[in-house]
Task: structure prediction
Amino acid sequence: MPELTVADRVEVLVLVDNSTDNLSSVPGYVETEFPSFWRRGARLLAGDSLCCAAHGFSCAITVWRDGVSKTLLFDSGPDSAVFERNVDRLGFKIGTVDGMVLSHGHWDHSGAMLKALDMIQIRNGGEAVPTYMHPGMYAPRAMRGPDGAIRRFDDVPTQDELERHGATVIHSKESQVVLDNLFFISGEIPRVTSFEKGLPGQVRRSKDGTNWEPDPLLLDERFIAVNIKNKGLLVFTACSHAGVVNVLKHAHHSFSAHPIHGVVGGFHLAGPTEANIPDTVRELGKFNLTTIAAGHCTGWRAIGALATAFGDAVVPSSVGKIYKF
Result:
């Protein structure tokens, strides 16, 4: 694997998340939606000027090296209208996106991919967008309810659909270093902890299309990492079905010479996985994280436990936030 190039600085813009929060205090390296709104020259605060929260996740990660920037779009969130509105309200220059990654094959991360591609191409002069996908993301998925009923998920856009909207689809099950070696996209994440068991109850269509088969591990899930000068790795995990501890263990194994500075994204510690909160908090303490930007599917109980354990390191993600490293 090529060495991950060290970035001079990194900026993360949260385009879609489950919550909006413009009132809580934040450290100096984080900006919420309101200050950004006024800084861009707005003159009237009104509801139709602000972002919408939605169940899902999307962020734009911009990395600078020697004065040159590269931007990777990590997921798109669940809904085209929400994605388009938030990009517009945040003044995000979406034509600067150099590539897109889908973290895993779930609707709340892939629902606006086609709209995102359309918006990028309109603003980048029609240039194709490298789009990094695991080949296992496309299978129809569902949850099996307590009564045995199958509750379908919306499908991920197909390769043909993505390419019709301007993507150059790049499939891999293995790790990759992309965009001038500034971004690491993991391969399949080893499951090494005893308590992180994926998404019990999830099923996927069998290859012959005749049945639903258990699919709790979501082996197509991947994370992104960047290496920040004088700080270390910043890890992006959109949903952590693999378990956020497994994610960070694999990031450390992949780049053992570098400390992990922080983690951004959903930790999937809500609902049935709330039982994992104590073990997760204990294990996260071993990484000495400076930033824990938990959002999306983390859940309020887990965020409370994380804040109690790690104090000011916890700066929950919400739509419109900008993190500057």
